Amino acid sequence: MQNTVRRWVYRLERRLDKLRHRFKRWYGYSPVIVQPYMTYGTQDALWVAGRLLEAKGVQGRIDDSRWKNLIHMLRRYQSDEIPFTDIVITLGNEERTVTTDADGYFHYQWKAPAIADIQRPWTRLTLRAADPELPKAQAQSIVEVSVPSDSAQYAVVSDVDDTIMRTGATNFLRHTKTVLLNNAHSRELFPGTSELYNALQQGASGHAGNPFFYVSSSPWNIYDLIAEFIAIHDLPKGPVLLKDFGLREDRWFKSGHESYKTDRIEAILNTYPHLNVVLIGDSGQQDVYAYLEVAKAHPDRVLAVYIRDLKPAARSQKINQAAEKFADYNVPFQFIEDAEDASEHALALNLVTKNAVQAIKHDVAAAQASTGTD
Question: What residue stretches are annotated with the Phosphatidate phosphatase APP1 catalytic domain (predicted)?
Fold first, then answer.
């Protein structure tokens, strides 16, 4: 019975989407943008992704009020996507076309690109909507695809909420307030995180250029906010891989937090078989369990796992038991209080330089002094 209801709801939603799209075509769309999603690839294949949307004007400023931030966040979640429309992708002198799905998303694997068009560490392609009747805020958008340099020693996969960005995910009211009433400028970065991540990017050589991937269970609707937060705080640029919460015909929602992250990391490992990974997350959600599944499947490819310990005194026995299992696969695991803890452990594993660790310690100490904490 439940499966039948779900299928009917899904089909009704798709039909309503098509009717709304036809009405918009007749009545007229607002200015439209092709929102590019930063992705990754190799010299053999590039993954290109984005979404065709009506422009919302949700770019935040440091002096925006909480009320304005709330309005912008609601606009993000009330996205007006443009379905079933061709997007022209251009790389060098070659063009290829992909069509947006019912939710306005498009995903395309550009196989066998011309070697001359591949730039490391970032290859740039242009995107434009092929329909001349759609008003566009700009003639084209630029999408960047991460192609790791030959000097890369390993890759880093990081969670976002309560790993780099303080959101209070373990407290519902605090988390809701942070998510709804703050923008990329007013959200808080954990002290030392920028220095730690840049140290990991440069690796033990100091100039490795290790690729970064930000994997979160947040919806694609807030992609722009997370990408802007990363840029504002000088974190290493990298693909932001989020989740589609839309209804599916075979189940009510997309995969859960744990399986979603595991699948994303598996895809990264398969794309770069020559790169091992460092995994960074927090104890507030399911990161420990997701990373343990990766360690089980690829024990020789996980260099280290760092989990920001949000509530050490209240850490569950289940999490402690999961953490102990990493030793069964010879995967270094560390609960960390701050970036300094992670940097010292990373130095012992020859993942970062001594100079980088000193910079991280200085930043954490300065932050503690300014807040009066020990």
Answer: 155-309
